[in-house]
Specification:
The protein is mostly helical and 57 residues long. It contains one helix and no strands.
């Protein structure tokens, strides 16, 4: 294996590591956003049911 091949392989490994790290970071952000959306949906449903109860009285 040539020195250039080793250098290229190391560069590719680093790139894959960086991509892996970026993807993991994006997944964390997506999970946080999904939790926030679920919480907002629960809150909206609670408010809707409260409003429904109030209008039925």
């Amino acid at each position: 294996m040539k020195v250039e091949d080793v250098a290229l392989q190391n560069k590719m490994d680093l790139t894959f590591e960086q991509q892996d790290k970026a993807i993991k970071q994006q997944l964390k952000i997506i999970e946080k956003l999904q939790r926030r959306v679920k919480a907002e949906q629960r809150r909206k449903n609670q408010l809707a049911s409260q409003l429904k109860k109030l209008t039925q009285q």
